[in-house]
Amino acid sequence: MSQAIQQTVYAAQNRELPPPLAQAVAVANDKAGNNRTLTRATLYRWLAKFDLRQPNAVELLAPASAGKTRRGSWLREVVAPWADAALKLYQRPQKPSLRWVHDQLPAYLPKGVTPPSYDTLRRFIGQMGNVAIEQGRMGSREIKAIKPFVRRDTSKLWPGDIYMADGHAFDAEVAHPRHGRPFRPEITTVLDTSTRKALGWSTDLAESGLAVLDALRVATQTGGIASVFYVDRGAGYINAMISGPGTGLLSRLGTTLTHSLPYNSQARGIIERAHQSIWVRAAKELPTYIGKDMDAEASNKVHKLTRRDVKRLGASRALMAWPEFVAFAADQVEQYNDRPHRGLPMMSDPTTGKRRHMTPNEAWAKGVQDGADLVRLLPSEADHLFRPQQQCRVLRGEIRLFNNTYFSHELTEYHGEGVNVGFDIHDPSQVWVHDAEGVLLCKAQLDGNRRDFMPESFLDRANRRRAEGRARRLQDKLTEVREELHGGPLLLENDPAQRVPFLAEIDALRLGQTVDVQAIEVSREQATVAAVRPAFRNPSERYEWLKAEGHAAWKESDKQFLSEYVRDPDGYALFAERYELLGLAWSEQDEQELNSFKNPARKVA
C-alpha cells in the first residue's frame, strides 16, 4: 500500500498520470489553480475517510462544491453575510412572508453589510430544500408530515397479536344522558392491528380509564387475549386499573403494554385512520356535526336551535338521545367491519367475481382459518378478570375501599397483610378479595363503620366529584362576572335614619306629651321595613328581593330603580334567564305598577 501511494504521488507530480486520472485529481482537490497535484499526506487522509462498510463511502470523498444541488444536500460556494440573519427571520413558527423578511432584514444586519434585493433573497430561499427551509417554521410534530417515514408491514401478524386503542371526541353533539344539554361524547376503540377489525368500543361522558377498561373487556371477549396492547401515553391507559402491577387488568390477562413515542401519532396511523372511517364518517350523518368540513353558517344555526330548544323545552329534536346514539354507534362499527379496507389484501368478490380488498371481518375469518392461535376466555373467567382491582390492607378482618368498610371473618388470619380487592363499579354491596397469587379468598360484605349513611358506588362517587368541581368553577366565574359588572362599594339599603321619627314619638309618650297615633303607626311600619330589608351587594340582588316581596314593599326610590333597571341592556337583560328560572320575571302587572308611578323628574319639570 505504501509503495502504491508513493508511485501515484510521483506520477502526479511529474505529470505522468493518465488523462482521466489527471482530471480526477483536479476535481478532487477542488482548489483554484491548475498546478496542484497530490501529496502523500493527502492520499492517506482520503484513505482514512474511505470506508466500504458505510453506505455513503463515496459521498464522504466528494468535494463540497460537487454536492451543490437545488434540493436536498444544497451547499453554497460562498455564504452571503446576510444569509444567517435572513434565515433566522424566515424560519419562525409565525411563518412570516418573504416580503416581511425583506423589509425587516436591514435592522438585523451589522454595519457595513448591504441587504439583498427581494429577488436575490427569493432565489436564496428557493435554492434550499423543501424540508430544510421549514425547520423552525414547523414544529417537531408537524414537520414529520413532510419527512420520509417507515411503512410498518402487518402482513406477518396474526389476529390477536397486537391490539391498538385510542380515544376520539365525537365530532357531533348529542343529548347528555343526565340533563339533555348538547355535548360531545368520548369514544374509545380497540382495533386488531393485523385485520383492522374493530373488536371493542365504549363511550363515556369524558375520557376515562373506565371507558378503556370496558372497551378492552369487549375486545377480549370478542377476539381473545392480545399478546400486545399498543397505545399512547394518555391518562386512560396509564392508571392502576389498566397497567398497575398485580392489580392491573393487563397483568392479569398476561398482555404486554407498550406505548408509542410522544408526538408520534404516525406510529399509530392504523387506528387514527379508523377514527376517520368510523366516527368522523358517522358524525357527518348528523345535523349537529361540528367538524372542520361543516359549513359555518349551517353550524351556527344548528347551535342556536339546540340551545334555544333546551332552554325552552328541556330537550331538542335536533339532538340524538343517548340510547339512540349508543345503538347508532354500534351499527357504525358493524358497517365498518363489513366494508373493504385498502390496508388489507385483495380477493375476488364471491358475488360479483371482481377483485377488491378484504373486509376486516373477512381478514379475521381467514386468519382464524389459517391457524391463528387465539386465547379465548371462559364465561367464568371473564367475571373475575374484568373487575377492577386495588391493593388494600386487612385490619382486623376489615378492608376499607372508597370510604366504605367491608368485612369478612375469613380475613381474620390475614391481619396486616396486603390483598388485591376486586370491586363492581356499579354495585358497592360487596368486594372480592384475592391473595397475591390471584386465588379468591372470600367475598367481603359491606358492613358497619361506614362514613356515609348510604354507600356510594365507585362510579357515583367519581361523577359526584366531577359535578361538584364543575359547580365550584361556574360559581367562581359568576362571582367574577358580577364583580366586573357591578364593581365598587356595597349598596346598603338599610337607613337607620328612618327609625328616628318613630323613636321620637316613643320618647314623647314617656314624657306625657300629646302625640299623633297615626304618625306612630306609620313610623312603626317604616321601621319594620327598614329592619328586614337586607344589604344588597348589586342591583340584581335588589331586583330579586323587590320582586319576591311584592308591590307593597316598593318605595318611591325602588320604583325609580326598577324603572331604570328593567330597561337597561346591561341590567335586567343580562340575568333574564335566571329570573325566569326563579319565577321572578318582569310581568305586565309590574309594568302597570310602574306606570301608575309619576316620575319625579317629570314632576319637577
TrEMBL record:
<dbReference type="Pfam" id="PF09299">
    <property type="entry name" value="Mu-transpos_C"/>
</dbReference>
<dbReference type="InterPro" id="IPR012337">
    <property type="entry name" value="RNaseH-like_sf"/>
</dbReference>
<dbReference type="InterPro" id="IPR009004">
    <property type="entry name" value="Transposase_Mu_C"/>
</dbReference>
<dbReference type="InterPro" id="IPR036397">
    <property type="entry name" value="RNaseH_sf"/>
</dbReference>
<dbReference type="InterPro" id="IPR015378">
    <property type="entry name" value="Transposase-like_Mu_C"/>
</dbReference>
<feature type="domain" description="Integrase catalytic">
    <location>
        <begin position="144"/>
        <end position="278"/>
    </location>
</feature>
<protein>
    <submittedName>
        <fullName>Mu transposase C-terminal domain-containing protein</fullName>
    </submittedName>
</protein>
<dbReference type="InterPro" id="IPR001584">
    <property type="entry name" value="Integrase_cat-core"/>
</dbReference>
